[in-house]
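Example 3.2
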Amino acid sequence: MTFDFTDRGKKPVVENIEEWTKANDNYRTTVWTGSKMQMTLMTIQPGDDIGLEVHEGIDQFLRIESGKGLCQMGPAEDQLDFEQEVEDDFAIFVPADTWHNVTNTGDQPLKLYTLYAGPDHLPGTVHPTHEDAENDPNEH
């Protein structure tokens, strides 16, 4: 099956979310940016992570489609007092203004999708690697 990985935000879209997520090989691919919500697909390589971050005023939902990892959250960058192992079919709910990270602790890529309410990345953002994301001047 072939998927369209362009940002089709503000247009109706229906996809098989599990297959779409598993087909993505980029660190981050923004596939839908609306006025109040955004969806990205992510592939985190073994030993890598999404990057410790906080979204001011933005709630976030992540769903693990394949792989396993460690989710950490807390009120401050140096106070991640919530930790939970995650794997296939787990959902992660990150309240706005909460520091968080998800690290791939397995030996296979960690495949997930995430919803931001509202959008967090520029429409159409694609980062083939974590390094590309960190070096993008448009990111936080």
